[in-house]
Amino acid sequence: MLDAIEFYLRKVLSYIVALLGGLLVFLIGTGVFFRYVVGQALSWPEEIAGIIFVWFTLLGVVLLTQSGEHIEFSYFIKRLNRRCTKILSAFTQISIALFSLLMIFYGYRYALMFLSERTPAAGVPVLWLNLSLPISGVLILFYSQLNIYKLVRSPERSSIQP
Fold first, then answer.
1. Residues 145-156: pLDDT tens digits?
2. Which three-class secondary structure state does DSSP give residue 118?
3. Which segments of 34-131 does DSSP mark as H helices, in order?
């Protein structure tokens, strides 16, 4: 059951990240087209692209956490025995989980501070930008806990693999 949830969530997140990447290319291309071809720069594509870029980046970090391809001590992991590798991997995942708790807590508090704010050019609620931190924090927490569970559950595993 847990594997199915992980599989479908990763699939949905991958599609969302791909869609956001395509939107970024479109918005930036639109901005460049209007600035250099039409001769009148639009301010809203840059604003929207900034919001999408934040979501794109943070959801990409979620996918990296799920697959175990995030920053870790790969130089040391390759040179340690199986037990030390497992301990270092667990430490990395616990650190990621603790950091994600900070993302959730402070991201939520920050989002509440600017509930009624809107972006100047596009008029988009700033809440769309500010919710990226706590939502990605929840997803990172889920995947880091799942990675810890996988480390504990399977003794033959030395590090997290997708």
1. 999 999 888 765
2. strand
3. 44-67, 74-77, 82-113, 127-130
